[in-house]
C-alpha cells in the first residue's frame, strides 16, 4: 500500500500540537470521522482535533447542489496551514451526491462529468489524499452504465491531474446503482485505462457491503478473502466504519452508531484488530446526535479500545 506509506511519511513532517489524537496501539492507525466545513474548509482540521481524529473526511462544496466553486490560492494556503497545525494525517473528500457518471441522459451525464472534474480540482488544490466517489445509477442497461461510468472517470482523470487519489466506494445496491458487488467494482476499475488505474482505488463502507449481502458477522474472514481475491487489498484506500440500521442483504443504505445496528460491535473489533487493515485510514459516517462531537468521540474511543485489546491479535 504505497499510497498509505506516502501519507504517513508526509504527515510525519507536520509539527506536533497539543491537539494530537490520544496515543493508542498501532493497530488503531489513522482514524477519524466526517467533519463539517461550515464557515470554510480551514475550520475542519481543528474540528477533527476536537474529537481526537487523525483522519478526516470533508465535503469541498454543498453535496446536494450543483453550484460549483474553485479553491483560491489563499483558501488553499489557509487550509494547509490549519492542517499542519492539527493532528490530522489523512484527509479525503466525498464528492457530490448528485453526480451520476453512468447516466444514459446526455445532459445529466455531461453535467456530472463537469461537477466531478470540479471535485477533483478542489481536492488537488487543497492537497487532499483521496476523493471518494459513488459509482452511478445505470438507469437503462447495467453493462452500458458501467461502461459510461468508466468512460466518465477516464475523461475526468485525463483532464484533472494532481496528487489526490480517486477511491470508488462499494455501494449497498439499491435500485439501479452500480458497484455493490466486488465483481462489479473490479469490472468498473478494469475498464479504466491501465495508465490511469494507478490513480484509482477502492473505499469499503461496512454498512454498504453488509446491506449488499456480505456477512461480516458470520463470515468475516471469507468476506475479506473474497475482497482480496477479486479486487485486491492493495487497492483498499479507505474504510468507512458504519453500523447498519438495515439487515444483511437489504440493499438499503442506512447508517447507525457502531455496535447499535444490525452488524453489532463484533466485526468492528475484528477490523480494528486486523493487521492487514492497520495502515488503511478509517473514518466514521455515523449519526452525529445533538452536537458534532459527543457521538464521534465515543465511537473513536470505542474503536481505539478494540485496537488496544487486540494488540496480540494476528491476521495473515
Q: How would you describe what is shown here?
A:
There is one protein chain. The protein has about 325 residues and is α/β, with parallel strands linked by helices. The chain has one domain: Alpha-Beta Barrel (TIM Barrel). The chain is about 40% helix and about 15% strand. The strands form two sheets. An eight-stranded parallel barrel has the order 1-2-3-4-5-6-7-10, surrounded by four helices. Strand 1, helix 2 and strand 2 (about 55-60) form a beta-alpha-beta unit. The radius of gyration is 18 Å and the shape is globular.
Summarize model confidence as the mean pLDDT: 92
Secondary structure: helix percent: 25-40%
What's the CATH first level? Alpha Beta
Count of discrete alpha- or pi-helical segments spanning 4 or more residues: 11
Query: Under CATH, the topology is which?
Result: TIM Barrel
Please give the CATH architecture: Alpha-Beta Barrel
Number-wise, the strands total: 10
- Described by the principal axes of the CA atoms, the overall outline is globular
What characterizes the major β-sheet?
Answer: 8 strands, parallel, barrel
User: Low-confidence parts lasting 5 or more residues at pLDDT below 50?
Assistant: 1-20, 312-316
Count of the separate structural domains: 1
Task: Please specify the SSE layout and strand pairing.
Elements: H1 2-11, E1 31-34, H2 44-51, E2 55-58, H3 73-85, E3 90-94, H4 106-126, E4 130-133, H5 142-159, E5 165-169, H6 182-190, H7 194-197, E6 200-205, H8 206-211, H9 220-230, E7 236-241, E8 243-244, E9 255-256, H10 265-273, E10 282-284, H11 294-309
Parallel strand pairs: 1-2, 1-10, 2-3, 3-4, 4-5, 5-6, 6-7, 7-10
Antiparallel strand pairs: 8-9
Helix pairs in contact: 4-5, 5-6, 10-11
